[in-house]
Specification:
The complex is a heterodimer of chains A (79) and B (958). Chain A has 79 residues and is mostly helical. Chain A contains 5 helices and no strands. Chain A is globular and about 35 Å long. In chain B, strands 13-12-27-26-25-14-15 form a 7-stranded mixed β-sheet. The chains are: A mainly alpha (79), B alpha/beta (958).
Chain lengths: 79, 958
């Protein structure tokens, strides 16, 4: 998946949750949204981008991805 | 199938408005009716038929034909029974020698000026004038036929669908009243006085007039004066079936009137609860596409998209498609294939496609065209209120005192509902329009918006926040309602956010482009109304903050207590006939039917047991994700049922590249559409006339679709899906769509009580329909919200990242016009092209002048995604800096210039919306272009002038 697109989408989700006054809630909201709506290869893509330095990701997104990484990691691919 | 004779009780049902029962005598029979009921209706209910011509129960009584006269004991004269209300103790006679004589005399006058061509008249056998001549016993016309008459009046055949033959007109005014009372267009009038009186659609022909071809006048006409051309051609129908329109989300109920297996005409069903006997030009007349010569009736395959199609049998096509899917899954993995369900197909068909994907493909890669329209509605309303659907029925608007129309253009896109809304506005309800474009509702006959918030595209959230800020800071909130029904911690948090001066009209007004005072006054009007209702469309959802706007709308409605009773609510106007249904049926990649997330093990277990396979617990790819995955090589096959993604989805070049990258695209459609150009397998689709099933409209109303002709290609769409499933080794066992609905009901709590028998019995059902609501739910959230407590959500306004620049100084918005529908696959294959033969670009005179563009010029429109060429229509309905077009014609390629920006939550693209898409573009006059005389004259011919003579949108004809 195009990493730049994933970054853009992730940041837009983050922009919505950034309005939440409690930062932990905002990060949980962002990560929860990715878990509920992003297909595994998209989550895998954004986490790989994070591992590659996370260029372009908003600070909230970076922090949320790091904090909730375990939840976001897809299971092994079934064929 | 039922009879073609429609029961007509003469005057409308006034039971909701009249008082206590009164008892009177009619022809010696005691009759008890609600006070205020007309004598004519009371007589009818007592089994006494009073002759009539100008009366019909769809229109207010008029009392002009003098045929329904009665005698009332103790009263002088012969009052018209249609206009005389019942009173206690009345003794009424409907049949006396004197009345018979009067009626015959009246009929003599009518017939003396009427052509005696009954045997060759298209209304022969279905003519009220003919019937009444028989009823009153007309045997002679003493006046003869040689006197002055109207028999030579020329016939107007300008309208493509009906004729106007004034020689047959009795000037009963039913057509004029239908145009006013039912449609609300006021296109017709009675011109002249006395003997010179005649019905006229303005100074010119019907096609030149303001007539919108809804057919209400044709329906109301008691003679052959206004008559469908199809009846002229085919004769009177001999049987009919009640079915549901396949165009917009209003979901009008129609009688398909037939002769053998040919549709003679579609007549709006009087008892249809969505449309209450009304129709629009599409549903009423534009059904000819179903038998158009372009219909593909034979399956086709090809090895590559460069090769020509090869016709094959159904068995060969299905076997090839199944083998390709399995080959691709074997090579690229289980998740390399997916499917798209269609909002043009039935609930049962969309259910089967998602079942096919989940059970036979073994993944959740299923999505639907709501991805480019109303997904934010589902997300936003589920988050705030607890259910992914509108809160009201359409009748509710008749109880509204303030109506907000936001990002919707109902008179064009949902015309039948718009007519009801206009009726309520004419009764005195106030209107607030929130739209960057001056839509018809802003200023139409006898209705004018109290406020038109002509916002800058992309500032929906800012508007909603500013309105809510005023309500909170001026103490207009319904605090008791909020405290009783909403989550208070979330409300307190939201209230702190919305009180912030950054959300005030004074701060946001300049961003929105509307004075703060207007925003404040509009907020006060909405908040202080007894009942205030919000109706919104794709101008809200097809936006980068679409979901946020929907939640902001819900916030405002909760804040003001405008949820949970008739006359209020949050009402999405759905784009296609079965958008609601396709979403209900589990078409989203993260939800099983009934909007239950695939991660819920209980729900997965339920479906897994029923379907006999495990359900994947991870969300699948959404349509744009499928495109992206195709381009990165991990998504290789797609089954598309009844959806033209290559034309309807934004950023066409991107879509085309994705489709080209796939190894197997299976398209199932009526016609070779734009997507089929990239397909390897083509399965012929069946129109709504060729199959059984149900549609669910914007008010959650489940209505029957009934097969009136056999599938032209041999299989209904649900049967083709079953065949594909079987070839994939997953046989499904249904003999009729009613069995599919039974499975849906068994697995979906909101559908538990839905059966075909019950739909037949009730006419239609609004879900939820279960033990708690056995006959359905017209209004949701009555005592509490579906989620329990309503949830206020913080809705920060985030400006779209796309900004105008020197290179791209304009904002493009898109929308729909009355006569065409979506990508035009259906309506372009009908005579509706008489009104809109090509997409045009509307732009403000200032923008036109700055670029040297004149009305009718061909102009290039370019964004960073692509460019296209459109005819210019210079109009002040646009605001400077904003241009508008439609996407009904593939040649114009409107979506070539739309970009990939999307809603943050649902990735609905900024696409075909009257107000939201903000692809920046520039346009210039195309070299060598000139204003065409023909175009100008065509526009004059076809434009509907507004009340100020202004041209309306998109009525251009090349």
């Amino acid at each position: 998946m195009d990493a730049q697109k994933l970054v853009k989408m992730c940041n837009e989700i983050g922009a919505f949750f950034a309005a939440e006054p409690d930062k932990a809630t905002a990060m949980a909201g962002l990560a929860g949204h990715l878990k509920r709506f992003w297909e595994p290869r998209m989550r895998r893509g954004i986490l790989a981008h994070l591992d590659g330095g996370g260029a372009g990701l908003s600070p909230l997104a970076v922090e949320a991805l790091r904090m909730h990484r375990a939840m976001l990691e897809p299971k092994a691919v079934r064929s | 199938m039922d009879s073609n004779k429609i029961l007509d009780r003469g005057t409308p049902d006034r039971s909701a408005r009249v008082g206590a029962p009164v008892t009177l005598q009619i022809d010696g029979v005691a009759v008890t009716v609600p006070a205020g009921t007309s004598l004519m209706r009371a007589a009818h209910d007592a089994g006494v038929k009073v002759p009539k011509l100008c009366a019909t129960d769809s229109l207010d009584a008029f009392g002009s034909c003098r045929l329904c006269l009665v005698e009332v004991e103790g009263r002088r004269g012969y009052p018209a029974s249609c206009t005389t209300p019942c009173e206690p103790g009345m003794k009424v006679k409907t049949q006396t020698d004197k009345l018979a004589k009067l009626r015959r005399s009246t009929m003599e006058l009518y017939i003396s000026d009427h052509p005696l061509d009954c045997l060759t008249c298209p209304a022969n056998g279905n003519c009220e004038l003919q019937d009444m001549a028989g009823v009153v016993g007309l045997r002679e016309v003493r006046y003869g036929y040689q006197g002055e008459n109207h028999l030579a009046a020329p016939k107007d055949q300008s309208n493509p669908y009906f004729t106007f033959d004034p020689s047959k007109c009795i000037v009963c005014s039913r057509c004029v009243r239908a145009c006013e009372e039912i449609q609300g267009t006021f296109a017709l009038t009675v011109q002249g006085r006395g003997f010179d009186s005649k019905i006229a659609p303005g100074p010119g022909s019907f096609l030149e007039s303001e007539c919108v071809s809804c057919g209400a006048c044709v329906q109301a006409c008691p003679t052959a004066t206004l008559m469908e051309k199809s009846v002229y051609d085919q004769g009177q129908p001999d049987h009919s079936a009640i079915t549901t329109c396949a165009y917009c989300g209003v979901g009008c109920s129609f009688r398909a009137e037939m002769k053998g297996d040919q549709v003679v005409r579609m007549v709006p069903h009087k008892d249809g609860r969505a449309n209450r006997g009304h129709s629009c030009v599409k549903g009423r007349f534009a059904f000819g596409y179903a038998t158009h010569k372009d219909r593909i009736k034979q399956p086709m395959i090809r090895a590559s998209i460069q090769e020509p199609w090869r016709e094959v049998t159904w068995e060969q096509a299905i076997a090839h498609a199944a083998s390709e899917i399995r080959r691709i899954q074997g090579k690229y993995g289980r998740g390399s294939v997916g499917g798209i369900t269609s909002s043009r197909c039935t609930n049962e068909e969309t259910y089967l496609v998602q079942k096919l994907v989940r059970a036979a493909f073994g993944n959740n890669n299923v999505d639907t065209c709501a991805r480019v329209c109303h997904s934010p509605t589902g997300y936003g309303l589920k988050t705030t209120l607890g259910e992914s659907a509108g809160t009201q029925d359409f009748d509710s608007v008749m109880h509204a005192d303030v109506v907000v129309v936001m990002g919707a253009n109902p008179t064009d896109a949902h015309p039948v509902f718009a007519s009801r809304m206009k009726k309520r506005l004419r009764e005195g309800a106030q209107l607030i329009v929130i739209d960057p474009r001056k839509i018809d509702l802003v200023d139409s006959p006898h209705t004018r918006a109290a406020f038109h918030i002509q916002l800058q595209p992309g500032t929906n959230v800012a508007v909603m926040n500013a309105l809510a800020h005023v309500v909170v800071t001026e103490g207009l909130a319904k605090v008791d309602y909020v405290r009783a029904r909403c989550e208070l911690p979330e409300f307190d948090k939201w209230q702190a956010f919305i009180r912030d001066p950054k959300n005030s009209p004074e701060v946001l007004g300049p961003v929105i482009g509307v004075p703060a005072t207007t925003l404040r006054d509009a907020a006060r009007l909405y908040a202080t109304a007894r009942n205030a209702a919000i109706y919104y469309g794709l101008g809200v959802t097809e936006h980068s903050q679409g979901s946020t706007t929907v939640m902001a709308i819900a916030n405002l409605a909760m804040l003001t207590g405008n949820l949970g009773r008739p006359g209020v609510g949050v009402n999405p106007l759905r784009g296609q006939n079965n958008v609601q249904g396709s979403c209900d049926m589990g078409s989203f990649p993260h939800e099983l039917p009934g909007y239950r997330h695939v991660s819920d093990p209980t729900v997965r277990e339920l479906f897994g047991q029923s379907w006999g396979v495990p359900i994947d617990d991870e969300p699948g790819l959404r349509i744009p994700n499928m495109f992206d995955a195709a381009l990165d090589g991990s998504f290789k096959a797609l089954y598309v049922q009844g959806e033209d993604i290559a034309q309807s989805d934004p950023d066409t070049h991107h879509v085309q590249a994705a489709l080209t990258a796939m190894e197997c695209v299976i398209v199932q459609d009526l016609f070779i559409n734009e997507t089929a150009k990239y397909a390897h397998v083509f399965l012929p689709g069946a129109s709504f006339l060729e199959k059984d099933g149900t549609f669910t409209n914007a008010e959650r109303r489940i209505s029957r679709v009934r097969r009136v002709m056999p599938p032209l290609a041999g299989l209904a769409d649900w049967e083709a899906t079953m065949a594909l499933a079987k070839a994939l080794g997953y046989p499904m066992h249904y003999d009729h769509p009613s069995q599919i609905m039974a499975e849906i009901a068994a697995l979906t709590p909101t559908f538990t009580g839905v059966t075909y028998d019950k739909i037949d019995q009730l006419g239609s059902i609004q879900w939820p329909c279960n033990d708690q609501a056995p006959t359905g739910t017209p209004v949701m959230h009555v005592d509490q919200f579906v989620r329990g407590k309503g949830r206020f959500v913080i809705t920060e306004y985030v400006a779209t990242p796309e900004r105008t620049s020197r290179k791209f100084p304009l904002i493009l918005t898109t929308g729909r016009i009355l006569s065409q529908y979506n990508v035009g696959a259906q309506t372009r294959r009908t005579a509706n092209t008489a009104w809109h033969a090509a997409d045009v670009l509307e732009l403000h005179p200032h923008d036109a002048e700055a670029r040297g563009i004149r009305d009718g010029d061909r102009v290039e429109v370019e964004s960073r995604a692509g460019k296209t060429v459109l005819r210019a229509e210079v109009t002040e309905r646009m605001q400077p800096g904003v241009v508008y077009t439609t996407f009904h014609h593939p040649e114009s390629g409107a979506n070539v210039v739309t970009t990939e920006n999307s809603d943050w939550a649902t990735i609905v693209r900024n696409t075909r919306s009257p107000r939201c898409r903000s692809a920046r573009c520039w346009c210039r006059r195309r070299r060598g272009s000139r204003s065409s005389r023909r175009l100008r004259s065509s526009r004059r011919r076809c434009c509907r002038g507004g009340s100020d003579g202004r041209a309306e949108a998109g009525q251009d004809v090349q």
